[in-house]
UniProtKB/TrEMBL annotation:
Keywords for the protein's UniProt record, in alphabetical order: Membrane, Transmembrane, Transmembrane helix
GO MF terms, alphabetically ordered: calcium ion binding
Intracellular or extracellular location(s): Membrane
Highest taxon, organism lineage: Eukaryota
Organism this protein belongs to: Lecanosticta acicola
Protein name (Swiss-Prot/TrEMBL): UPF0674 endoplasmic reticulum membrane -like
Bias-annotated ranges (Basic residues): 428-438
One GO CC term on file: endoplasmic reticulum
Amino acid sequence: MADLLKNLLGGAKSTASSVASADDFADFATAASPVPPSHAASSAFPDAASTSRPSFGAGMGLAGRPYTKWYRVWERVAIDDFYQEMVIVPILLVIILVNIWGASANKRRAKQWAKTHLPLLQSEYASVGMGGRKSKSQSGQDIPDDFYKEQSKNEYISYATGRQNVAWLDIKLSLYKRYNPVVWFGETAASFLFDSMPAPVERLEATAYSFDGKEKAVVPMKSQGASALGTKDSTYDGFVFAIVHKDKMKQLRVDRYDISLTSTKDHPKLPHWATIMSEASEVTEAMLTPELVKAVTDAGEDLEALIISDQPIDAPKKLNDTVPKKRVYLAMRVNDTPANARLFSVFLRLPDHLVTSAHFRPEAMRKIRATREEEQKKLRKIDEEEKAEERRLASDKLKKEERDRKLSKMTADEQRKFLEKEKEKQQRKGMKKQTMRG
């Protein structure tokens, strides 16, 4: 009876399992004690090897492994393994040094240009530079830090304001990409292979925006002398006139909408490499002053274009784009010669000549106005067609909504009859169109 109770309560089973578990660990009773791994000792530190204690897991899977030279980096690495790095690292250093040298060379080039032209700007404008402060007469050796701003490593911009007849002046200096000789060489090579790719040059671009009688809208009334500006007449007739290098003539006519309105004609007063692009002969005679002709002749082929315009550069797409915006634009190669400085000085004073002399007879302006009115008619027609298309689409949308509303209130039979009538009506319209075409 006692054995039966033990079997029911599991006493005998637990005893058997305990015995079995004891037998399971019998194999480990005769196992050898752990010993330190053989690689723990080093020939360089024999004493340390005898006193070192194995850390937890240090001998797991490493016992019996000999200490070889692969544990010493200086023994398993040769100079042959670094041939690739020996080529890449010098190339990277050369690229970095050339980049730094090119950026520094362009900065020196921009500073040299500023030394020549800063006195000219300060003599004509009250505020020169990006700082917005009044300019002070300085020697050519001292260039203010805010005179120009670095747009990129080969582009610098400047700004001037505070002059009669001119709202503001924008200046952009584009230099060679000395910091990237690969791109520089690629652009030069492409210019020889393709006519559409111009050769890289160092270019000065300056644009003077005229007041044209809008001083009160541009100059704050609180500023000093604003009341006096409103009493002066700075308006002049709008037209397009340009003195262009013949190599740039074709490209300018394609790139600029205002130049496309002009006709090209050589002038005996100008050198052989320059030509006139003007809207009227009377405008040409009024603009070709002896001072301007001499400055253009002395500057030589460094001049690319001198443009007086009131029309947009890009072709207008809306009537608002045809609003006249009078300005004077100069593009020339960067060259710190006295002749180029004189041409730049004549450009700075050209707005004064426009205000005093650019007032022409109605007969001379009739053709110029006719060209602008013709362009405005085209834009007005396009605008009316767009508005008519919008009205048609809106009407079609209302008709479709009304049709859907009617269909939603019909039964299935009524909808079927309605759609059949609609289909027959469309077929009759199609047949009428075919008859009219025949």
